[in-house]
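[scheduler] slot 2 assigned
[scheduler] job type: sequence-to-structure, two independent chains
[scheduler] chain ordering preserved from manifest
[runner] begin chain α
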Amino acid sequence: MDSPPALERELSVAVLIPAHNEAGIVGGVVRSVLRQTHRPAAVIVIADSCTDTTAQEAAAAGARVIVTSHASKAANLNEGLALITTDLVVGIDGDTELAADAIEHMVATIAAGYDGTCGAVLPHPSQPRTATVRARSIEYALARRLNRPAQSALGRLQVLSGAVFCYRVDAVRAIGGFPVDVPIGEDGELTWRLQGAGYKLGFTRAAAAWTTEPETWGVYLAQVRRWAASSAQILARHPRQLLHPARALIVGAWLFDLLGVSASFALALMLGIVNGPGALAGISVITPIVAATSFALAAAELGVRQALTCTPAAILAALLVRWVYIWALFRELVLGMHLVAWTGRQGRRAQLTPMTDRRRWTLTLLLGVTAAAAVPSLPWLAGAPLAAAALALIVMAACASQRTRGRHSLTAGQVPVEALLEAR
């Protein structure tokens, strides 16, 4: 007799854990998977290019281990995907531990009619409570309480977390597997591809997981730069999805918060300096409302005491992250310089593609035209068109002569980023 449809029986699960140099951590990760109330049929650790005892520790904890040298999370996931025969695939990072019922909750979401979901991540409680870990606690609390539930309700998530996710195996295979044709941000790319293909994705707030977060500002900002660049590259690759009303609303609100609010605050501050404190009235009213709302959401997730201790670091991080994202959008979409690798706590060197000559000269021409139009209006150049033209030429020459930073060689096997941005 044929097996009943998947929804009429317990959905089978295989867990894939891509890992690179996670010695001292990966054993606990595997054990957290084996303690699940919904027992997985297989637990596979894909140890990629490890120079430590990751593979040995994972095997000792009870996982099947595959050793690879892909230097690619997506390629490792595809290696594991080819080996499984279950209904669902759960993926977790090699430094992320699951609550005992995390898989059970994600499976329930899939059984309710979704094709993919992700859990809610928080910093691992064993980590030192550095400023960056405290800041990340607030970020994740707000994502768990507001951002992801709202996006899930609208049917268009920006990204299903790569730290802990669950997908129908047939859905991932139907779109060609985990995306190896993007330089960074394979979790966000997979999310957009699945939604673009009509698959239904949602968020499982009750599926808790704890991951190892950056403990220094250098690693923290390197990680944020990767996330920011990935967001910009996804927007460039999927412009048609921005026509979907829910997607347009979510992306529009994000860009307004990122650009519009930042510009409004900067303008208000400048007016305050020029015209006096009265010009800051708008900020003085809006800021406490936003701060109080954010604190209430964080406190509901973390508790009042922890929210209080984490808030100062979160405020500093929010300011830094905002400008990192603004710069990443400008660099990726305007300058055309694309991040294809990141530094991270594994010590990898950041790599940027150079600006193309065509883009450089186009931007130079635009700057020159703008300068030629603007400088005659300056009082000290009024009535001096030759001086204005000379200044415009100087601006153009300066732009054209700028050498592009970050012109590092790409590693073997990487796809040219221009092709990646055009690829679906």
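[runner] end chain α
[runner] begin chain β
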Amino acid sequence: MDDTSPNLYERDVTGPFAALCGGGTNDGSMEDCISVAELAGGGYALGDTKADGAGRELRMTRDEITSFAEAWLARERQA
């Protein structure tokens, strides 16, 4: 794959996926987790840890994932 491509879906995953779990229902089933791995050349691959979501990924640049997280947290604070 091309690690310099502007298309994140053409970049290789450089390391293992790490599970990030949240919510209040983490019973070890990974149902409330996402997996995250870095991409060669920058960016992140986010995966679904649920069995039905296996193999599906969303890829985001550092700026995109940061912007998303900040907007989500701001929304949660207003609720």
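[runner] end chain β
[qc] chain β: The beta strands are 18-21, 33-38, 44-48, 57-60.
[scheduler] slot 2 released
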